[in-house]
Write a structure and sequence with these properties.
The protein has one domain: YmcC-like fold, CATH 2.40.360. 3% of the residues lie in helices and 56% in strands. The protein is globular, with a radius of gyration of 18 Å. The longest helix has 4 residues. It has a twelve-stranded antiparallel beta sheet with strand order 7-6-5-4-3-2-16-15-14-13-12-9, with no helix packed on it. Strands 1-8 form a two-stranded antiparallel ribbon. Strands 10-11 form a two-stranded antiparallel ribbon. By secondary structure, the chain is mainly beta.
C-alpha cells in the first residue's frame, strides 16, 4: 500500500519568505474570494479516493493501490507569530471496508494573502490571494529543491527544478466523482520532462470546498532511448491521483 507519509523521508530547511499579493487592477482577471478556496474550520472533514502506482526495483516491481483517505481538522492552536494553525488528522482505509487507521498528522494555516500546508514535515505555500489567472509564486520556498525523497526505499530528488506555481484556470466548472463544483481554480505546480525523468503536479481547489483534486507523476528511468510511455518505462517513483468524494463542514465558524 502506498503510504507516502511512511516511505518518504524529508529534511526540512526554513528560508525567509516574502510574498507580494497586490494585483494591478488593469491586469486583474480572477476571484477576489481567495481564502474561501482554502476553508479551515475545526470539524471540516474531507474524504478522498486515492489511486496510486509505485515503481520499484528498476521497474520490475509495480504496486497499484486504491484506498480512501480521510482528512479531518481536529484542533487549532496559535503559533509564535500569532497565527491560527489547524491540526489535520489523516486516516486511511481500503475500498473493501474496515475501519479507519490514522496514518499522519498534517497542519494548515492562512491569512488574507496566502495559504500554507505542512505535509510530511514539508511546508508548502499552496495559494496566494487574490486567485488570479497566470499569477505565479514560489510554492516550495521553505525547503531546498534538491531535497532527497525516498520512494519504496529509492532516493529521488522529487522537487528538483519545479520552478514557480501558477494559476492556469480560474472559476471553471468541474464534475468529479459525481459532484459538480463551480469556481474551481487549477494550480500547475510542475511540468518538467526529459529523457530520464518526469515531474508533473497539479492541484484543483473549489471555493468553499478546498482541495478537490490532486495529480502527481514523479518518475525516473534509465531507459533514455525508449519511446515507450512513462507508465511502461518508469523504474522508480510513483503516479498518484486524489479525488474528493465527500466534504462535511465543521460546526464552528
Amino acid at each position: 500500500m502506498l503510504k507516502l507519509q511512511k516511505i518518504v523521508l524529508f529534511s526540512l530547511f526554513l528560508v525567509t519568505l516574502y510574498v507580494s499579493c497586490t494585483p494591478e487592477l488593469e491586469d486583474y482577471q480572477g476571484n477576489l474570494e481567495g481564502p474561501k478556496f482554502f476553508p479551515l474550520t475545526v470539524g471540516n472533514t474531507w474524504i478522498y479516493l486515492v489511486d496510486s502506482v509505485v515503481y520499484d526495483n528498476q521497474g520490475l516491481k509495480i504496486d497499484s493501490v486504491s484506498q480512501f483517505i480521510k482528512e479531518t481538522i481536529t484542533d487549532k492552536y496559535t503559533d509564535e507569530a500569532g497565527d491560527d494553525v489547524f491540526r489535520i488528522e489523516r486516516s486511511a482505509k481500503s475500498l473493501d471496508g474496515g475501519g479507519w487507521e490514522v496514518i499522519s498528522i498534517w497542519s494548515a494555516s492562512k491569512n488574507d494573502k496566502v495559504a500554507y500546508k505542512t505535509e510530511n514535515n514539508l511546508k508548502f505555500l499552496k495559494l496566494t490571494f487574490p486567485v488570479t489567472m497566470n499569477k505565479s509564486w514560489e510554492g516550495n520556498i521553505f525547503f531546498p529543491s534538491d531535497i532527497v525523497v525516498r520512494i519504496a526505499g529509492e532516493p529521488i530528488k522529487m522537487y528538483q527544478n519545479w520552478g514557480k506555481y501558477k494559476y492556469t484556470e480560474v472559476d471553471e466548472s468541474l464534475t468529479l466523482e459525481g459532484n459538480v463544483y463551480q469556481n474551481v481554480t487549477t494550480i500547475l505546480q510542475a511540468d518538467i520532462e526529459n529523457k530520464i525523468s518526469k515531474r508533473y503536479s497539479i492541484e484543483k481547489y473549489a471555493k468553499d470546498f478546498g482541495l478537490i483534486y490532486k495529480e502527481m507523476w514523479i518518475l525516473d528511468t534509465q531507459k533514455s532511448e525508449s519511446a515507450a510511455s512513462w507508465e511502461v518505462k518508469a523504474e522508480e517513483g510513483f503516479i498518484l491521483k486524489k479525488s474528493l468524494v465527500s466534504f462535511v463542514e465543521g460546526e464552528s465558524k
